[in-house]
Amino acid sequence: MDAARGFFERGLTQLRESLAEAASEAVGGGGSAGGSEAAAEAQRGGGHAAGGPPVGSFGSGTGGLASAGGGGSFSLDRITERLGAALRDASSALDSGYQATRLMGSEGGAAPAVPPFGPPPDSLDRIKKELGASCINLHNLRRLTCYGIPDCSVRTVVWQLLLGYLSPSPEDWASTLAKRRTQYRVFCDELMLDKKRVSTGEASWMQQRTLKADEQDSSAEPKDVTSSDHPLSLELSSQWNTFFQDSEVMMQIERDVLRTQPTMAFFTGDSDAAATHREELKRALFLYAKLNPGLRYIQGMNELIAPLYYLFKHGADVASHQHAEADAFWCFMELISETRDYFCAQLDNASTGIRATMRRLMTLLRHYDAALWRHVEVTCKVDPQFYAFRWITLLLSQEFPLQDIFRIWDFILSDEASRTDCLLRVCAAMMLHVRATLMRGDFTVIMKTLQRFPPVDINVILARAAQLPHVPDDGR
Question: Which residues does the annotated region (Disordered) include (predicted)?
């Protein structure tokens, strides 16, 4: 706060001195004793010339000011130029003081200059009322949910609405869910291959889950096996070739799923339930890879589907829990459709690619706090790919506990203008929150702080992000 006060005082002093100097030129002809006395009196008296109005007040207009010169070397253009420069200098200093006061976090020596953030007391009732309408107003819903959704079961429906999985018309929900869940089962039936199915044409994977072993044995009729379906065949059309490729993808998915939310027994425990959860995540991610051959599965996608799956497994409608896998799959498809370019190496340098997005984050930081940006990126040469790549591609899902991720995604999904820019403002707010640590630190300290973000009340970060203004793409 002392630093911010210094900025303000310096700006006011610059303004006072420059205005007094301009008044000296006007009254005393640029260097006369009368002008000097008026200027000195103006500085001592807080900006008032002896016997006259406050300096800077032109009284009865520029004509009266000109006549006060008494035939000296008065120049109206000169005074206008000096006043303009004085106002620009003072404005710059005052703006710096404002930014210092607004952006300094608790580490800056004072409490964050941000208002309380979070759902108001009547938020849940208002959200439920909006959801009860015959046609839901998504604009109004976003205005309510951006501050946080205080109930997990309500969040389930809200996210499905905001992601476009459900339409604003509740009367369509039952048919939409039935159709999508059936379609997911069809995908499982058609795309999940195993060795027995490849070689004999037995019941599909989905059927194998439901049919008894004796029924499978009695109904299986081997197909003719061609040379292209031999396990050693190199033909691209070979089912065995497809099976081996799928096996590689599934192994990669399995490795990642085992590391999903490692502190939560829901995903990593030894229980049968945890094992089932992992299997369902693996299946959903594998189907995404099969349906998107141009992108397939990319490491980290497991962290994006996990919050969705966990949420849908804990919804109020217990009957829907068995469909959490299908619902999470479709919502993941909607979510990844907005961010898939981050995962595509061929688009890294495109305007929608990850490198351009990281540059956009640095543009925002430079606008909000030029000194911090300069220290991190220019002085210490900390490339944003070392920390922001993970922040952006995984929507901060690895930086905070799951309950905080829910709050962050409430905020991001509720943004109407640009979810990407909203995410970047949250990232910028994180850096502003640890400003003091970053400014004191070297390359190693900055890397450690940003790669392992310290514990924080997530409402403080979101409040700061909500206050950050929009910055045009050109950074001006």
Answer: 26-63, 206-231
Question: Would you list the DSSP string of 256-317?
Answer: HHHTSSTT-HHHHSSSHHHHHHHHHHHHHHHHHHHH-TTT---TTHHHHHHHHHHHHHT-S-
What is the pLDDT, as a whole number, of residue 119? 84
Encode pLDDT of 297-342 as tens digits.
999 999 999 999 999 999 877 888 999 999 999 999 999 998 888 8
How far is residue 246's CA from residue 195's CA, in Å, rounded to a whole number? 11
* Average pLDDT for 37-49: 40
Nearest to 432 by CA among 97, 10, 118, 113: 113
Distance separating alpha carbons of residues 395 and 239, to the nearest angstrom: 36
Residue 61: what residue type? G
- State the average pLDDT over residues 250-263: 94
Read off the pTM. 0.70
Q: Residues 117-140: pLDDT tens digits? A: 788 888 999 999 999 999 999 999
Distances (CA, A) of 360 to 211, 268, 424, 442, 471: 53, 36, 8, 23, 10
The answer, yes or no, to whether residue 413 has pLDDT greater than 90, is yes
In the predicted model, is pLDDT for residue 103 greater than 50? no
* Residues facing residue 48 across a β-bridge: 54
Confidence of residue 350 (pLDDT cuts 50, 70, 90): confident
Sequence-ordered list of residues with C-beta below 8 angstroms from that of 347, at least 6 positions apart, any chain: 341, 353
Distance CA(360)–CA(241), nearest Å, equals: 42
Q: Report the C-alpha gap between 213 and 204 in whole angstroms.
A: 13
Count Cβ atoms below 10 Å from residue 237 Cβ, excluding itself. 9
What's the pLDDT at 165? 97
Cβ atoms of 297 and 252 closer than 8 Å: yes
Q: What is the DSSP letter of 417?
A: S
> 139-146: which pairs have CB atoms within 8 A and are 24 or more residues apart?
139/416, 141/414, 142/414, 142/415, 142/416, 143/414, 145/410, 145/413, 145/414, 146/410, 146/411, 146/414, 146/415, 146/466
Q: Any idea which fold 174-341 has?
A: Helicase, Ruva Protein; domain 3 (1.10.8)
pLDDT of residue 112: 44
> Domain 345-467, what fold?
Cyclin A; domain 1 (1.10.472)
Name the residue ranges covered by the structural domains of the chain.
2-103, 174-341, 345-467
Element at 21 (helix H, strand E): helix 2-28
Task: Tell me the C-alpha distance between 466 and 50, whole Å.
Answer: 48
